[in-house]
Amino acid sequence: STLDRSSAASDVYKRQKQWGTKMIDIHSHILYGVDDGAKTIDDSIKLIDEMVKSGVTKFILTPHRRKNMFEESSEKIEEHFNILKEAVKNRYEDVELYLRKRNILYRRCS
Fold it and tell me: Which of 2, 18, 22, 92 makes the best surface tag, with the fewest CB within 10 Å?
């Protein structure tokens, strides 16, 4: 028989709540409107919904910050984060969002 994805995902979420098992996404581009990830808040919510169904309860949002490519202001990133965080809080009681707030410079070693 064909596996019903939504029911399977729902079962994962129920087990996760029952057993206290949690997963953390430590790198995502689900913050809308700031880089090449989610474009709208609805896109962000849909991505979070799917990940929650898979058992993820904590998200570390890591938007790109790159000169001449992704140069959204810190204020806009913070604003979108706060809006999304509030929307998620109203939707899920046990899902937490965190925002990586500093830029990390990676240097090629040769």
Answer: 2
pTM for this entry: 0.69
pLDDT of amino acid 22: 75
- On whether the CB atoms of residues 62 and 33 are closer than 8 A, the answer is no
Other beta carbons less than 10 A from residue 21's beta carbon: 11
Q: What one-character DSSP code corresponds to residue 66?
A: B
Q: Per residue in 45-90, pLDDT tens?
A: 999 999 998 889 999 888 866 566 566 677 888 899 999 999 999 9
Q: Is 20 exposed, middle or buried (0-12, 13-18, 19+ CB in 10 A)?
A: exposed
Question: What would the two tokens of residue 17 be?
Answer: 């709540």
Residues 36 and 90: their CA atoms lie apart, in Å, by 26
CA distance 66 to 72: 9
Q: On the CB side of 94, how many CA atoms lie within 13 Å of its CA?
A: 15
